[in-house]
Amino acid sequence: MTRSTKRSWVSLGRTVMLILVASMCNLSDCYDPLDPHGNITVTFDIYQYTPDGYMARVTIQNYYQYRHVDKPGWNLGWTWSKNEVIWSMFGAFAIKQGDCSSFKFRTTHSCIKDPVIADLMPETSPVNRSEDCCHGGLLSAWAINPSKSFSSFEIMVGNLEANSTGYAPLNLTLLAPGPGYTCSPVLDTDPTVSLDIGGRRQVQVYRTWKSTCTYSSFLANKTPVCCVSLSTFYSPTITSCPKCSCGCREADKSEVSCIREGYPLLNRDLVSNHDIVECTDHMCPIRVHWHLKNNYMEYWRVKLTVSNYNYNRNYSDWNILVQHPGFSQNSTTYSFNSTVLPTVGLGDEVALFWGIEYYNKELLNSDEDVMGSVTTDIILKKDLDSFTLSNGWAFPRRIYFNGENCEMALPDTFPMLPNDSSSLKTAHYHFLGLLIYLTFKTLVTCFHE
Ligand SMILES: *[C@@H]1O[C@H](CO)[C@@H](O)[C@H](O)[C@H]1NC(C)=O
Ligand SMILES: *[C@@H]1O[C@H](CO)[C@@H](O)[C@H](O)[C@H]1NC(C)=O
Ligand SMILES: *[C@@H]1O[C@H](CO)[C@@H](O)[C@H](O)[C@H]1NC(C)=O
Ligand SMILES: *[C@@H]1O[C@H](CO)[C@@H](O)[C@H](O)[C@H]1NC(C)=O
Ligand SMILES: *[C@@H]1O[C@H](CO)[C@@H](O)[C@H](O)[C@H]1NC(C)=O
Ligand SMILES: *[C@@H]1O[C@H](CO)[C@@H](O)[C@H](O)[C@H]1NC(C)=O
Ligand SMILES: *[C@@H]1O[C@H](CO)[C@@H](O)[C@H](O)[C@H]1NC(C)=O
Ligand SMILES: *[C@@H]1O[C@H](CO)[C@@H](O)[C@H](O)[C@H]1NC(C)=O
């Protein structure tokens, strides 16, 4: 096969893939195949009735394996079914009190028909706290730190008719912290059971309502935030991120502004939350580089580097997800924490990496002098049946940064093995195979569920 026929096959493949994906994926239905059960569950547990309402504990639990709720934290909103008011709240607060003038003789927390609740800071005084509260709205990813993946607050709801058992709130909304989450209706479920008397007695609340919120990056209307570049020990070629992965520098300066590398940030009125990225061909705030470093007899070594091209943002609690069949074997990661996630019938293993406390937990912004980055070496054991340097096998299939899919270099730009290695011809056919495989995978993503 000549180079040009290969090229045309590639572009045909790409077109077919795009058409199929566009036509078969009702975009918001595309869920994440690497975390099919991920969701944020909001639970209302009514544990006491009052003469005119109830007391409830509301818990927000993040079940996403590698998607956390970052600064400035979550906002939870809903619409009351009747004329409920919130008499008091512990462990969180309604951001608006609203018009409580009809309750002259009682202190009220919020009389808004559609309250929006925000979290309190960890240093909040004990009088305003509840159990498991006050994390400043941050929730860790489930696979990284389950003990910090949830938050609770307590509300006293009133102004209902006597003997009411409550009405489930309507139209739950979750900003975590931005848009992108869709919440199911709040429905009755089995009452939450907990243990008492050292685990010997089971107690249950009177009534439990639940809603699950799921994320869609299409709804979040996000441009990609990261891209993947590749290099190898056997070729001087560096495969850079696809051009315009996250935006084009020529395009009208709508949202993203970019500044030249090393440009002194004199005008540092960067207090705004706007991303200010370094001008690159990819224009991504984050670049992940996969360098195939060594090929030993029984092991192979990769250097994984995450670089922050955003001058205006530090990423604390960052995480990187890598899908690669090589992680089915034992591996050692030197400078990041890591775990291999259970996969759900997709074959390739998925490894999750995150920073080590007090060392590289925060991916700092670049400045005039230093590029902000975190890096580690990873040594993987070889499965001699599947390991190969050809056909792009040694490159990752997919990479996510903080749960957002990164733009990958395309297979036709992968670093090539030197010509003298045998049978390039089969390599080309394999390479077409890889393309078809990737197309197939994308489709599976859409069809599942
Ligand atoms: C939410 O996530 C939990 C934990 O993975 C799972 O048990 C539950 O079924 C999920 N809920 C929905 C509606 O998917
Ligand atoms: C803390 O509680 C007191 C009294 O209960 C209340 O006046 C105050 O507004 C609360 N502060 C916050 C931050 O919720
Ligand atoms: C509330 O329930 C109690 C006990 O069932 C009953 O005696 C009382 O009349 C009820 N009150 C109203 C307003 O329905
Ligand atoms: C809930 O949302 C639906 C759809 O957006 C809307 O039609 C309905 O009026 C809302 N209900 C309330 C009580 O806000
Ligand atoms: C990032 O963190 C560093 C060190 O803590 C700090 O000097 C810098 O101002 C932070 N940058 C931003 C954009 O917050
Ligand atoms: C992986 O490593 C652990 C300890 O280093 C060892 O006990 C285990 O047998 C290894 N597994 C494989 C499949 O090599
Ligand atoms: C990360 O690893 C370090 C030691 O390598 C460990 O002490 C720490 O608890 C880990 N952090 C998390 C969040 O698992
Ligand atoms: C490899 O092949 C390319 C084109 O097929 C050729 O230009 C190049 O000189 C070859 N390199 C070697 C080392 O043979």
From TrEMBL:
It is a lipid-anchor; GPI-anchor. The keyword Mitochondrion does not apply. It is found in: Cell membrane. InterPro entries: COB_C, COBRA_pln. Residues 226-415 form the COBRA C-terminal domain. Residues 1-30 form the signal peptide. Keywords: Glycoprotein, GPI-anchor, Lipoprotein, Membrane, Signal. GO terms for biological process: cellulose microfibril organization; plant-type cell wall cellulose biosynthetic process. The keyword Lipoprotein applies. GO terms for cellular component: plasma membrane; side of membrane. Belongs to the COBRA family. This is COBRA-like protein. It comes from Quillaja saponaria.
